[in-house]
UniProtKB/TrEMBL annotation:
<keyword id="KW-0430">Lectin</keyword>
<dbReference type="GO" id="GO:0030246">
    <property type="term" value="F:carbohydrate binding"/>
</dbReference>
<dbReference type="InterPro" id="IPR051918">
    <property type="entry name" value="STPP_CPPED1"/>
</dbReference>
<dbReference type="Pfam" id="PF13385">
    <property type="entry name" value="Laminin_G_3"/>
</dbReference>
<feature type="region of interest" description="Disordered">
    <location>
        <begin position="58"/>
        <end position="92"/>
    </location>
</feature>
<dbReference type="InterPro" id="IPR029052">
    <property type="entry name" value="Metallo-depent_PP-like"/>
</dbReference>
<feature type="compositionally biased region" description="Polar residues">
    <location>
        <begin position="83"/>
        <end position="92"/>
    </location>
</feature>
<feature type="compositionally biased region" description="Low complexity">
    <location>
        <begin position="58"/>
        <end position="82"/>
    </location>
</feature>
<dbReference type="InterPro" id="IPR013320">
    <property type="entry name" value="ConA-like_dom_sf"/>
</dbReference>
<protein>
    <submittedName>
        <fullName>Concanavalin A-like lectin/glucanase superfamily protein</fullName>
    </submittedName>
</protein>
């Protein structure tokens, strides 16, 4: 039965209700009810706040740790409440501020050196919006007037690999640079990270939409040095433990060539009407914008601000004693492993002590860097609330999928309303949409309301702050929802069907091995028979590649049977791998005589796995844990140096909780990798890795059926070191030594010597 058949569609449904329903149901409702809306008609860019600004046109193809003693404990955060947009019962005085979180993957993977992945994946998209970064700034510029957008703030990590600036022969910015006017937005004649980023931000400049820019750790100097991270300007940072390993006070960055300062120099920032000034390093700046008759100051602090920069920031605030301040800092508050819970860091405590707590004008601070979204409220030295927020989507689907943040400052109703959404998703080609394409996020940490009596909060330093008579009859958040959702049509999503039994999955030719980690006779928690050589059968037709347990690095009780399994796996159970660390593991290997050890996969391949990551995953202990490895250090392969301790084939989980598929092709002396975004522990995931000779040996990783962004091509076959070097399941290897056992559960792993479509994956049914 279709999953839609039980969906009761109400006679009327407003945009608020629409955003709260299940994602697939929401798309279905949109398809049925909103397809003919006129909202989102095409138009030209106009100045921010000026006449003539229109909605972003829809694509014709789509339709659309604990705090330090000096940092007060976090108060119950009003942001924990879900977003509740006030009823426009009276004309409202309001404006919006837009936030661009870490855009690094958009710049990197739209670049030529990375194969222009967005353009390749979405070849039919309108070229004005053919990467998420451009789609974001085009949408801001197009909707600035109707959403009363006063300012846009970039949170840093503008690009991913700043050091490519010189090797790509990127051009610095000059006042005569006009990428938009030269047609390079549409013609795609610039495909370098820094120039792609420059293009995107120039859209705002052309539309007279003021913004602040910020250098993240990926934007600061690495040209001529392998030491990228550290404070600016070489003045040094004191007062906190700089645990990233660079404690030389920033001197390693002195005299380094800084691409950020070439592309976003002070002269470029000075072109904006809101520009107030920059720190002498060029890395920190402030702007003053006006909205609803009041002035606000945005203080943008780049990566690891030095003592000198913080002193400058304090002086900026002192020289503007009546202005409410929004602080932007690439790294400030941290975030828990769940991507939701706020966490203090050594640096956030340092900045709290040196800049935030004694400056009552700072009422909110927003940072990126840490993956996820969270909000916490603290009391400053004056007893007033300071809202601290993390926003960073780079590890979400497709490198962030164009997700951004908007804050509506509703002066009349005394609220700041936060919304998170993607202008990129609605302009993707309709046929390319899948379950991961969320245009408007509804979780409590993504859409929420902060209560703030602006006049009272600012009264101590600005008694003249006034709330003018309102002019809007529709809330800005509501208007933004309509621009994003109204022309967003539902993709066709095939209904999933659980297996009717353990044999209900497609049997396919060229299956080289299929291991099913379950026992039909064991009870939940029963120990796996723990002795060297104990086998798990290969259930492929040939059955030629059983795997045997290795216990020398583990202990009895490290492997236990479970009834838990992925809902689409026909295997009715799994095997739990417990207690794994960098030096402890119980794992399986193929026989030394197995033909799989020397298989080169020249006709392509499909590797599938049902994987569950234990919620106890600790990046410091379990990062880079092995799922499936081909053993043997690649330093033994021709063309590799002695320091190459990694193996010719690795399926692992990184310290950032990304799936990694890395191989050495048979015709190249290099390693090529596919990466997922950051995944969550505590849930079953199906991973499929498909290598297709018909597509130039392109390899695509799919997580829960959706292709990831960071794939690779020209991955022709897989090398091996020696015939006796085995395949290993549940452990990694470095420099010929086993290390970092798998922590979690495995349900099934299947290796097929050919590319398979989804209809033949283990998530499909036999008929």
């Amino acid at each position: 039965m279709s999953e839609y058949q039980n969906t009761r569609i109400p006679a009327t449904l407003n945009i608020d209700e629409l955003a709260r329903v299940n994602e697939i149901q929401r798309r279905r409702l949109l398809q049925l009810m909103l397809a003919g809306s006129a909202v989102g008609v095409s138009g030209v860019l106009a100045g921010c706040g000026g006449d003539g600004s229109t909605l972003l046109p829809a694509s014709s193809s789509s339709g659309g740790g604990s705090a330090a003693a000096s940092a007060p404990a976090a108060a119950p955060a009003p942001a924990a409440a879900p977003q509740t947009q006030p009823t426009q019962d009276v004309p409202t005085s309001s404006f919006s501020v837009m936030v661009l979180p870490d855009t690094q993957f958009y710049s990197r993977y739209a670049s030529q050196k990375m194969g222009m992945l967005y353009q390749k994946l979405y070849a039919d998209i309108d070229p004005r919006y053919n990467n998420p970064f451009k789609a974001q700034t085009q949408w801001i510029a197009s909707n600035a007037q109707q959403l009363k957008t006063a300012f846009t703030m970039h949170l840093g990590d503008v690009v991913d690999q700043s050091w490519y600036y010189s090797s790509e022969k990127s051009a610095p910015w000059t006042p005569s640079t006009d990428l938009v006017g030269n047609g390079q937005i549409a013609a795609n004649t610039v495909q370098k990270e820094w120039e792609l980023a420059s293009q995107a931000m120039q859209v705002l400049e052309q539309a007279k939409c003021p913004y602040s820019i910020c250098a993240g750790n990926h934007d600061v100097g690495a040209i001529g040095s392998d030491m990228q991270w550290g404070p600016d300007w070489g003045v040094g940072v004191t007062g906190f433990d700089n645990t990233d390993g660079y404690q030389d006070g920033g001197s390693h960055r002195v005299n380094l060539f800084e691409p950020y300062l070439q592309v976003f120099p002070t002269a470029r920032a000075q072109q904006q009407s809101t520009f107030g000034g920059r720190h002498s390093s060029g890395f920190h700046e402030y702007h003053v914008f006006q909205a609803e008759g009041n002035r606000f100051l945005v203080l943008s602090m780049s990566w690891r601000a030095s003592d000198d920069a913080i002193a400058w920031a304090n002086q900026v605030i002192q020289k503007n004693p009546t202005l409410p301040v929004i602080l932007i800092n690439h790294q400030l508050m941290g975030i828990g492993q769940d991507g939701v819970t706020a966490a203090d860091t050594a640096y956030s405590n340092y900045m709290w002590d040196r800049l935030i707590k004694n400056n009552d004008q700072i009422f909110m601070a927003v940072n990126g860097h840490y993956h996820g979204s969270c909000t916490v409220t603290k009391k400053n030295a004056f007893g007033h609330d300071v809202f601290l927020m993390v926003v960073d989507y780079q590890m979400a689907y497709m490198g962030g999928n164009g997700l951004m943040r908007m804050y509506e400052f509703d002066l009349t109703h005394k609220k700041i309303v936060a919304s998170s959404f993607s202008p990129w998703v609605p302009v993707k080609p309709q046929a390319e949409l899948n379950n991961f394409d969320s245009a408007w996020l509804t979780e409590a940490n993504q859409g929420f309301t902060l209560d703030i009596d602006f006049a009272a909060r600012f009264g101590g330093f600005n008694p003249g702050f006034a709330v003018p008579a309102g002019t809007r009859t529709k809330a800005i958040t509501q208007q933004a929802k309509e621009t994003i959702l109204t022309n967003f049509k539902s993709p066709t999503v095939a209904a999933s069907r659980p297996a009717s039994g353990p044999d209900d999955y497609p049997k396919v030719a060229n299956t080289l091995a299929h291991w099913r980690f379950y026992s039909s006779t064991a009870a939940e928690g029963d120990k796996f028979p723990y002795q060297n050589g104990q086998q798990i059968a290969d259930v492929s037709p040939a059955g030629a590649n059983p795997i045997s347990v290795n216990t020398w690095m583990g202990k009895d009780g490290d492997l236990v049977w479970s009834k838990s399994h992925h809902p689409l796996s026909a295997a009715p159970g799994s095997l739990r791998f417990l207690n794994a660390t960098g030096s402890r593991a119980s794992y399986f290997t193929t026989d030394k005589t197995s033909k799989l050890n020397t298989e080169q996969f020249l006709s392509g391949y499909t590797v599938e796995a049902f994987v569950y990551i234990d919620p106890a995953f600790d990046a410091n202990v379990n990062g880079w844990m092995g799922i499936l490895y081909r053993l043997g250090a690649r330093s033994h392969l021709q063309g590799f140096g002695s320091g190459e301790g990694d193996t010719p084939m690795m399926f692992a989980l990184s310290n950032l909780m990304e799936f990694q598929w890395e191989i050495v092709p048979t015709d190249q002396a290099t390693n090529l990798t596919c990466w997922s975004g950051s995944i969550s522990a505590g849930q079953w995931l199906h991973v499929a890795i498909v290598n297709d000779p018909a597509d130039g040996y392109a390899t695509t990783m799919y997580v829960e059926g959706a292709p990831v962004l960071r794939n690779n091509s020209n991955m022709h076959g897989i090398q091996y070191v020696a015939a006796q070097q085995q395949m290993a399941i549940g452990c990694g290897q470095w420099a010929d030594g086993m290390s970092t056992g798998f922590l979690g559960s495995l349900g099934e792993i299947r290796i097929v010597g050919a590319p398979l479509p989804p209809s033949q994956w283990l998530t499909a049914r036999a008929s």
